[in-house]
Each structure stands twice: as structure tokens, then as C-alpha cells.
């Protein structure tokens, strides 16, 4: 039996789970599998439960129901021991939302070293890992800078380097682009894409930006604590109505074609890129022309 | 005459030190009464300095800010009055919430202005309604609200002053698509109800296309482009040169135009493009 | 613009003092302080003064900047001088001035002068040795390293150093945040600059509460982020930066030790200008 890197079986999580009456169900009956080397976007509106899912994968939260298998290690509502959690976190790193609240040191390279220092990596190896990680995210020239003077996108790249230096196999980006400007968002998503392509890193990107999710190879849409859609960007974005109902959006071209279809025009489903949409709409005018000629 | 006008404003941080940085140089911008003007520009374009000048939080080193034709710094002691007439909603405004109840927090500015409690109460209710906050939330602690509700409560705190000019620095930052549409929709309604002049700072060209009448593009402390939305959006090459992308639907529409489909109208929004396509099909079909 | 606290009063440079190991600089500062306080006669005071001037020259920091470090303690200085001047008792040698209730003795003048000299030298010397030539973060590391033997007594040296580091990291962030919140409240008509003291203190509430709320959020976020990066306290940690002692560090140590020896010797053997017992 081929084993998956991450597997959830009937996974559920409730806040305030101690008292039955106040319990707020954040996630309910989630079953999914994630393989090593996948680039997955987890899309959902605020409060959909998408961040809760990320926090479960990193064991910041313990499941309330069901089971979670992380690289062969089964986690249930019993939780794991501190040592076991430590082992999982070496493999699955996490980059958070607020770039200011995750950098520890006053010098960039010392911050990048923080994770591997905790792992007790010897000094020569530390140096090598820090330099490599900074090079990977393109921040080498800022190695001796103070983090608070960097832009949001640069801070997030330092945070990514800090995770990379721990040499994980998977990185979870928990809305790491939400507080950035478009430039910063592009910087960070570029790094994600490169890590996945060049180092076969498993990337989970939690976001509510549709155009960022479109860059992943698979999109999982979470709504009200349940999996609403799971498929390639093309498959997911052509499900216009469920997406809109979940408070999300589709690419504008897909939306335009959807609206024209609703008005009775015969257009294909599943157009997402500018080129595809242009071709599809152009065919409407060509047909008319042909009709006129007849 | 413009409602609010920036005239020849230059501002340099740390002048004559090694850290000298020109935030704005000889900027001239006019904001027309009753219109929504979008202000767009990258980090470092001088945008946030300009925004804080509009309500007198920063005093320009040279040049003037005119409100109804009068220099707001003519009487520096009365700058407080200017701040109630030009309301500024800062980025992530939910960080400013502090009072015991939402109701008291929204009324903070009014209490500072010395208004009597009965009137404050009426204004607070009106402001809460403007941003779609249910009355039942008003007696809660602001820290018990959800993220989106906090944002709206903070905006209500400014709307309660009933500002003639409303300046918002990325009011929808970090919100999901529905949250964005809600907040921007409420602002549009506030404009319609009170005839306010609105200045909206945003990074999203889609939001600009959807909600603004005019657009000002700042670059490195200077006005790079300014005009009606359609004027500015049709200059896509210049926009691209400063890293701004026209909305996707407009790209599709322009590609169609290039292939000989003579679309025209508000091609920069989905609804506009749809209507243009329908219009043309109808004409051809007849 | 905000002053940059992570650099403290640090002046970037590459002088000998800049390049010394921060741990050695702390030890040297201790020796320097000992020398200043041991000095008992004119010879010794002159010696410490010359040594301090040499230190300033070594640091290559301009004299104007160095003298600026004295400015904050100017009033304390004048106050202690006056105290010494007026309250040196009757057995203090020759009476210089006797006017109404004021009696100034010869020894009072000497005491005032040398007390002032001591304080000024102390401030200048420590500024040049430590704060002007060492970043706060290097200082924190050095303190952790010097205090590490105390770990055997179960004193949480690592935790203390970690707290210092985090404080240094977040002070600029918090200052920025304070400015932002102040502006936001000003935009709502808050006034921080007029009214009675009571009113002004009350006007701080709308700043302090949001600041506390967001600081707690930051603390929670940071703690989670640190745990996710496998932080489990100081045990088993390695460190990227390690300070190594060079020949120059030992040369300075020997020179400073000789200086202290000189003072002890001077006090005993050269009673010239002995000022007070």
C-alpha cells in the first residue's frame, strides 16, 4: 500500500471542546490525502476553518475527532508527546501571517539560524544552512540587516529561510501573503513555486486570494469546516456557483463566461485563462458573422 | 473648485542627514466633491505620507492642502476641526479599538468634540447602520467581535463624525472577497447618503475599476497618472511600466477588440464587459 | 524619525575597541571602574584621566559625541559637587570662605573637583568601552556567555538572555505601533498635548489599551512561531555566532591589569597630593 505524506481520516476540530454546549465546530469530517512534492492551495473565506486545518498539520492544535497521519505517525485526540511533536515539526515547517510576529533575532542571519540552533546543528553546518537558505529566498545581501527595517515581503522571505534552514520536507504557509502588498505577495509566491519545483518541497498555501491559488497544482476549497471542492485549478474554478456561494471568487474571465452562459449563450465551461476566455467569447461573434453570411 | 486640493506639496524626511528621503515632490492633486478617487502606488511611493497630510497629521514642509479653498494650516491651533471634517481610516484600523463597549468606542471622536450624549447616541447608531453593524453588537466589548466586525466598528468610529471627506487607507486589506465587497459597498453607500468626497487607497486595480470614479497613480513621490477611471485604465502600457496590471476582464476585452470585435464601454469591470458584449451581439443579431 | 534602539547608542566603526571581544570589554569595564574608584591621590587621578583620553582616541569616536554622553548627568554632577562643597565638615583643612551659614573648607573644594572628575571619567570610559562600540545584541550575548557558570546554580541565564534579545527585537516594532495608534486616535480628535496632568494621563488610555492588546497578541504569535521552530529552551542549542578571543583581547587585559596595579601602587607609595583619608 502506497503511503501518503499527510492523511486525514474523518478529522474534526472544535474550539472550547471541554464543554459540549459552547463547542464551536471549526472543522468537521475532513478526509484527504497529500503526497510528497505536491503544491496545494487551501482556499476558503475568513472563518472557514482553513487555518485550523493548517494548525492541525503542524500540531499547534490537537484533533478533537478522527485521525491524522503525518509521515506515518498517527495523531488522534490523545495528542502526541513533546518529543514526538518535535520530530514532526522538523519535517513540517510553518510560515505565519504577520511578518512582524515571527522573527526572533535582531539580525537576519541569526534569526534564520534560530530553528537549526534549536535542533542542535553543529556550527559549521549551521553556517552552511543559513547561507544556503538565505540564497534560496534571495536575501543573502541582507544577512546582517535588522529585520524591522525590511519590507513585509522581505520579512516573510526571511521567515521562509528560517524554516528552510531546518530542512523540512513540507512548508505550510498560513495566510503568509494576507498582510503584504502585491509586490510582496508576488515575492513570496515566487519562492513557494520555486521550492516546490526545484527542491520537490511539499507546499501547502492557505489563502483567500484566488489568483494565488491558481498557481498551485491542486486546490482544496474549505467552507464551513468541510471540504467543498478538491481538484485542479481548472476543475475548481469552473465550479463558479459553489465558489461564489462560499464567499470566494473566480477569475474574472471565468465569471464573465459564467454570466453569459446564464443568459443562454452556448459557451464551454472550464475556461480560466485570458487566452481561453478570449477564444471562447470570440467564437460567439464568429458564429454570428457566419449566420449573417448565410 | 476642488473639495480638497494638494498644491505644490513637497516633503522630505531627514533632510540634510545621510538618511534623507524625499517622500513627495511638488505634488498637485485635486479631489472633486462627491466623487470616489482611488489612490494607488507601491510602498515608498509617498502614498501614506500624502494620506496623513490630508487630515493634518503631517504638516507639509512646503506647499499647501486646501479644504474648500482654505489652507488647513492657516490656523494651526484649529487643526482638530479639520480632522473631524476630513475623516481618516488608517490601515488595519481595528488596532485603534480600546473602549469598554463598541458603542462608546464608535462615539470616541464625538465625545472628544464635546457633543452631548443624546446626540452621540443617535450618531453612533447611524454610523453603525452605515457599516451594517447590528444594534445588538453595540453593547459588546469591541474585543469580542469577529475580525470583519472589528474592522467595520473601527470605520464606524470615523463615519460617526460625518466627515465631508473620507480618506481610507486600504480599508479592505486582509479581508476575504465577501468581506472586501461588503466594506467597499458600505463606503459607496455612505458617499451616496451624505454626498461625501471619498479617497480610497488600494492596491487592487479590480477594486479601483469597480468602485472609483477617478484614479491617481503615485510613483516615487510624484503624480504619475491621474484622471477618470476609463482614461487611466486605457493607458495600460504606462500602468504596466509601474508594475500595475489592468483587470483580467479588460485584458480579455482588449484582446477581442484586437481581433476585430469593436467592443466599447466600461470594459474594466465584468458587468461592463458583459453589457458591451450583449450590446454588440444584439446589434449584430438584428 | 525614530532613533534606532536595536543599535542603542552604537556608533558603527572598526576601531580596536569595536573589534574587541564583547566579553572582554565587559571585563575591561569592570577593571576600569575598579581603577577609578581605587584612585585616591592626585597622581592616580591624573593617571586615570590620561588612560581615559587614550581610550577615547582608540575608539576613534569624535570628542563632541563622547562629551555628549556626559550631558544627561550634568545636573546630578552639579548637585554632588555642591553637596561636597558645602557639607565637608570642620576638620576639612583651611577655611576658605565663611559667609552667613556657608562655610567652605579647602578639602571640600578638592573633594568636589575629584568627585566630578571621577563621575565624568566613569561615564566617558564606559560609554567608549561598551555602549558606543558594542551593539546591544553583542552585549546580551556576552552577558549570557559570562554568566553561563551560574547555570550550575539553576539560574536561568539563557532565558534571561533570550528575553533581552526579544525585547531588543520588538522595541522598534512597538515604537512604530505606538506612533500608528497615536495617529489613529488623533484622527478621532484625541488631544495629548493640552489640559491638566490628570487629563493628559487619561488621554493615554486610548493608546495604552490597544498597545497592550496587540502586544499580547504578538507575544502569543511569537511563542507559537518559536515552538514551531522547535524551541525548547537553552538545552541542546548550538549558536551560529561565537566570539573568539584574539591576541588583542589579551594585550588589552594585561594593560588594564597593569593600570589597576599602578593605581594601587600609586596610592601606597606616592602620597603626593594625598587629598583625604
Description:
The complex is a heterotrimer of chains A (294), B (286) and C (277). Chain A has 294 residues and is of the alpha/beta class. Helices cover 41% and strands 21% of the residues of chain A. Chain A folds into two domains: 6-238, Rossmann fold (3-Layer(aba) Sandwich), CATH 3.40.50; 251-294, no CATH class. In chain A, strands 6-7-8-3-9-10 form a six-stranded mixed β-sheet, with helices on both faces. Chain A has a four-stranded antiparallel β-sheet with strand order 2-1-4-5, covered by helices on one side. The longest helix of chain A has 20 residues, at 274-293. Chain B has 286 residues and is α/β, with parallel strands linked by helices. Chain B folds into three domains: 1-74 and 164-241, P-loop containing nucleotide triphosphate hydrolases (Rossmann fold, 3-Layer(aba) Sandwich), CATH 3.40.50.300; 95-159, no CATH class; 247-286, no CATH class. The N and C termini of chain B lie far apart (46 Å). The longest helix of chain B is centred in the middle third of the chain and has 18 residues, at 177-194. Chain C has two domains: 10-146 and 244-269, no CATH class; 156-228, no CATH class. In chain C, a hairpin with a 2-residue loop joins strand 1 and strand 2. In chain C, helix 2 packs parallel to helix 11 and helix 3 (42-59) runs parallel beside helix 6 (106-131). Chain C is flat, with a radius of gyration of 25 Å. In chain C, 26% of the residues are buried. The model of chain C has no long low-confidence stretch (mean pLDDT 85). Classes of the chains: A alpha/beta (294), B alpha/beta (286), C mainly alpha (277). Chains in contact: A-B, A-C, B-C. At the A-C interface, helix 2, helix 3 and helix 4 of A face helix 8 and helix 10 of C.
Give the helix tally of chain A: 11
Sheet/helix structural class of chain A:
alpha/beta
How many domains, in number, for the residues of chain A?
Answer: 2
What is the name of the CATH superfamily of the largest domain in chain B?
A: P-loop containing nucleotide triphosphate hydrolases
Number of E-state strands of chain A: 10
Radius of gyration of chain A: 22 Å
CA(first)-CA(last) distance of chain A = 61 Å
CATH T-level fold name of the largest domain in chain B: Rossmann fold
SSE series of chain B: EEEHEEHEHHHHEHEHEEHHHH
Quickly count the domains of chain B: 3
Structural class of chain B: alpha/beta
CATH class of the largest domain in chain A: Alpha Beta
Mean pLDDT of chain B equals 92
Largest sheet of chain A: 6 strands, mixed
- Beta content of chain A comes to 15-25%
Largest β-sheet summary of chain B: 6 strands, mixed
Amino acid at each position: 500500500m502506497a503511503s501518503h505524506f499527510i492523511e486525514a481520516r474523518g478529522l474534526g476540530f472544535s474550539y472550547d471542546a471541554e464543554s459540549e454546549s459552547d463547542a464551536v465546530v471549526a472543522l468537521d469530517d475532513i478526509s484527504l490525502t497529500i503526497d510528497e512534492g505536491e503544491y496545494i492551495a487551501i482556499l476558503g473565506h475568513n472563518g472557514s476553518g482553513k487555518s485550523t486545518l493548517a494548525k492541525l498539520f503542524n500540531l499547534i492544535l490537537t484533533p478533537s475527532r478522527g485521525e491524522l497521519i503525518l509521515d506515518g505517525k498517527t495523531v488522534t485526540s490523545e495528542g502526541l508527546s513533546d518529543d514526538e511533536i518535535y520530530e514532526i515539526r522538523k519535517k513540517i515547517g510553518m510560515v505565519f501571517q504577520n511578518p512582524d510576529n515571527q522573527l526572533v533575532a535582531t539580525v537576519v542571519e541569526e534569526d534564520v539560524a534560530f530553528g537549526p540552533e534549536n535542533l542542535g546543528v553543529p556550527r559549521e553546518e549551521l553556517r552552511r544552512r543559513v547561507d544556503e537558505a538565505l540564497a534560496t529566498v534571495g536575501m543573502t545581501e541582507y544577512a546582517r540587516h535588522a529585520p524591522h527595517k525590511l519590507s513585509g515581503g522581505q520579512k516573510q522571505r526571511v521567515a521562509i529561510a528560517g524554516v528552510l534552514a531546518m530542512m523540512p520536507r513540507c512548508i505550510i504557509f498560513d495566510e503568509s501573503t494576507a498582510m503584504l502588498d502585491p509586490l510582496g505577495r508576488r515575492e513570496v509566491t515566487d519562492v513557494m513555486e520555486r521550492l516546490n519545483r526545484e527542491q520537490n518541497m511539499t507546499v501547502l498555501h492557505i489563502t483567500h486570494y484566488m489568483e494565488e491559488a491558481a498557481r498551485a497544482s491542486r486546490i482544496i476549497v474549505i467552507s464551513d469546516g468541510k471540504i467543498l471542492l478538491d481538484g485542479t485549478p481548472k476543475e475548481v474554478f469552473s465550479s463558479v456557483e459553489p465558489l461564489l456561494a462560499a464567499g470566494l471568487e473566480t477569475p474574472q474571465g471565468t465569471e464573465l463566461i459564467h454570466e453569459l452562459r446564464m443568459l443562454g449563450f452556448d459557451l464551454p465551461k472550464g475556461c480560466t485563462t485570458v487566452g481561453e476566455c478570449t477564444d471562447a467569447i470570440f467564437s460567439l461573434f464568429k458564429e454570428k458573422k457566419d449566420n449573417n453570411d448565410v | 473648485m476642488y473639495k480638497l486640493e494638494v498644491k505644490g506639496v513637497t516633503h522630505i524626511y531627514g533632510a540634510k542627514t545621510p538618511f534623507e528621503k524625499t517622500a513627495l515632490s511638488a505634488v498637485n492633486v485635486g479631489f472633486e466633491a462627491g466623487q470616489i478617487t482611488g489612490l494607488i502606488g507601491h510602498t515608498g511611493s509617498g502614498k501614506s505620507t500624502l494620506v496623513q497630510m490630508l487630515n493634518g497629521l503631517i504638516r507639509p514642509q512646503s506647499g499647501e492642502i486646501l479644504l474648500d479653498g482654505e489652507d488647513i494650516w492657516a490656523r494651526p491651533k484649529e487643526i482638530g476641526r479639520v480632522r473631524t471634517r476630513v475623516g481618516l481610516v488608517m490601515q488595519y484600523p481595528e488596532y485603534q479599538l480600546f473602549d469598554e463597549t463598541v458603542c462608546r468606542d464608535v462615539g470616541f471622536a464625538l465625545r472628544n468634540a464635546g457633543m452631548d450624549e443624546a446626540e452621540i447616541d443617535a450618531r453612533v447608531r447611524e454610523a453603525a447602520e452605515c457599516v451594517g453593524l447590528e444594534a445588538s453588537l453595540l453593547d459588546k466589548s469591541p474585543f469580542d467581535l469577529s475580525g470583519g466586525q472589528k474592522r467595520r466598528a473601527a470605520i464606524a468610529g470615523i463615519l460617526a463624525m460625518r466627515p465631508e471627506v473620507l480618506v481610507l487607507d486600504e480599508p479592505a486589506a486582509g479581508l476575504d472577497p465577501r468581506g472586501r465587497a461588503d466594506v467597499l459597498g458600505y463606503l459607496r453607500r455612505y458617499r451616496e447618503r451624505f454626498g461625501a468626497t471619498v479617497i480610497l487607497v488600494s492596491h487592487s486595480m479590480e477594486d479601483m475599476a469597480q468602485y472609483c470614479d477617478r484614479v491617481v497613480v503615485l510613483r516615487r513621490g510624484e503624480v504619475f497618472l491621474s484622471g477618470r477611471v476609463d482614461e487611466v485604465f486605457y493607458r495600460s502600457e504606462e500602468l504596466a511600466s509601474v508594475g500595475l496590471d489592468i483587470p483580467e476582464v479588460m485584458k480579455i476585452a482588449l484582446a477581442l477588440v484586437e481581433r476585430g470585435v469593436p467592443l466599447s464601454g466600461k470594459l474594466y469591470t465584468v458587468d461592463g464587459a458583459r453589457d458591451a458584449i450583449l450590446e454588440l451581439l444584439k446589434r449584430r443579431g438584428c | 524619525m525614530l532613533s534606532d534602539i536595536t543599535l542603542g547608542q552604537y556608533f558603527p566603526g572598526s576601531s580596536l575597541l569595536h573589534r574587541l571581544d564583547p566579553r572582554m570589554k565587559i571585563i575591561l569595564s569592570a577593571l576600569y571602574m575598579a581603577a577609578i574608584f581605587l584612585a585616591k591621590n592626585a597622581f592616580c587621578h591624573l593617571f586615570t584621566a590620561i588612560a581615559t583620553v587614550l581610550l577615547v582616541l582608540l575608539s576613534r569616536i569624535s570628542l563632541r559625541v563622547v562629551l555628549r554622553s556626559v550631558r544627561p548627568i550634568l545636573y546630578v554632577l552639579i548637585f554632588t559637587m555642591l553637596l561636597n562643597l558645602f557639607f565637608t565638615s570642620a576638620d576639612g583643612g583651611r577655611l576658605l570662605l565663611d559667609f552667613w551659614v556657608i562655610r567652605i573648607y579647602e578639602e571640600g573644594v578638592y573633594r568636589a573637583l575629584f568627585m566630578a572628575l571621577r563621575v565624568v571619567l566613569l561615564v566617558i570610559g564606559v560609554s567608549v568601552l561598551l555602549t558606543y562600540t558594542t551593539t546591544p545584541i553583542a552585549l546580551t550575548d556576552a552577558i549570557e556567555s559570562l554568566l553561563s557558570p551560574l547555570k550550575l546554580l539553576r539560574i536561568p541565564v539563557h532565558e534571561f538572555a533570550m528575553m533581552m534579545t526579544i525585547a531588543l527585537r520588538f522595541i522598534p516594532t512597538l515604537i512604530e505601533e505606538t506612533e500608528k495608534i497615536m495617529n489613529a486616535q488623533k484622527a478621532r480628535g484625541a488631544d495629548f498635548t493640552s489640559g491638566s496632568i490628570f487629563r493628559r494621563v487619561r488621554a493615554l488610555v486610548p493608546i495604552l489599551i490597544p498597545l497592550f492588546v496587540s502586544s499580547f497578541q504578538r507575544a502569543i504569535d511569537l511563542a507559537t512561531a518559536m515552538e514551531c521552530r522547535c524551541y525548547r529552551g537553552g538545552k541542546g542549542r548550538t549558536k551560529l555566532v561565537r566570539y573568539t578571543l584574539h591576541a588583542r583581547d589579551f594585550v588589552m587585559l594585561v594593560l588594564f591589569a597593569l593600570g589597576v596595579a599602578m593605581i594601587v601602587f600609586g596610592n601606597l607609595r606616592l602620597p603626593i597630593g594625598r587629598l583625604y583619608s
